[in-house]
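Worked problem 6 (solution included).
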Amino acid sequence: MEHKSLPQRIRPRPPTNKNMPHSQIGIQPVPEVNAELFRRSYALPNVTNRPTVISVPGARAIWLDEDLPLAHPESIARGREFAHIHPNGSLHVSLSPERAQEAIEMGWAEPHPMAAYMGNLGMVMSYTPLDMQELDVVFQLIVDSYNFVTGRTVNAMDITAAAKS
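Solution. The predicted structure is:
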């Protein structure tokens, strides 16, 4: 799948805990940005907002409908949870290994500590978006994950527009 290149992240990478649970340290979400992150994420077709089955308490799964065919079921760690949003606004997503590498190189993500062990080199943590420009990139990664896992070709701008209406 062809992707729009990611811009270089301006802010420095936040500190993170490299152990389990893999988490960002000392960053709090901006309420209106975080609300928009949730609005967009749950506007994706055939997804549900439900409690995570693999992350910390309070994290919300972006859960795919049970009857939705999957192109890469092996990239999902558990159930139909292809991504989840932590209480601090950071999130784990499963991307293609190539897109994950680009997100890491451009400063938007870091590898999940268990990714290599699990054989899922596309599993990364994306940092909390702190403004709407960062949210646009982070949401693009969520859509890229959705498209990779499902084999669909959903456009992030279409979902963003639909979430606002």
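Discussion: The chain has a mean pLDDT of 90.
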